[in-house]
Amino acid sequence: MTSSAATETGATPDTPDTPEPGDSPAPADAHPAGSDTDTGAAPGTGSGSGTGAGAVVDPFDRDILPAPRNAQLLLLRSLLRPHARRVWTAAIYLLVQQAAVQVGPLLVAYAIDHAIPAVRDGRHGALIAVACGYIGCGIASGVLQRVFIRIAARVSQDVLVDLRGRIFRHAQTLSLDFHERYTSGRLIARATSDVESIRELLNDGLDELIEVVLSGIYITALLLFLDWKLGLLTLVSYGPLYLAIRSYQGRAVEAYRRRSTAIAAVIVKFTETMNGIRPVKAFRREQPNDEAFAELNARHYRANGDAILEMARYVVWSRLIANITIAGIVLWGAYRVAGGGMALGVLAAFVLYLRRLYDPIDRLGMFLNSYQSAAASLEKIAGLLAQAPTVPEPEQPVPLPARGEGVLPGREVVFDEVRFAYRTGGEVLPTFDLRIPAGQIVAVVGATGAGKSTLAKLLARFYDPTDGRVLLDGVTLCDLGRDDLRRGVVMVTQEAFLFSGTVAENITIGRPDATREEVEAAAKAIGAHDFITALPDGYDTDVRKRGGRISAGQRQLVAFARALLADPAVLILDEATSSLDVPGEQAVQHAMDTVLRGRTAVIIAHRLSTVEIADRVLVMRAGRVIEDGTPAELIADDGHFAGLHQAWQDSLV
Ligand SMILES: Nc1ncnc2c1ncn2[C@@H]1O[C@H](COP(=O)(O)OP(=O)(O)OP(=O)(O)O)[C@@H](O)[C@H]1O
Question: Which InterPro entries does this chain map to (predicted)?
Answer without folding.
Answer: AAA+_ATPase, ABC1_TM_dom, ABC1_TM_sf, ABC_transporter-like_ATP-bd, ABC_transporter-like_CS, P-loop_NTPase, Type_1_exporter
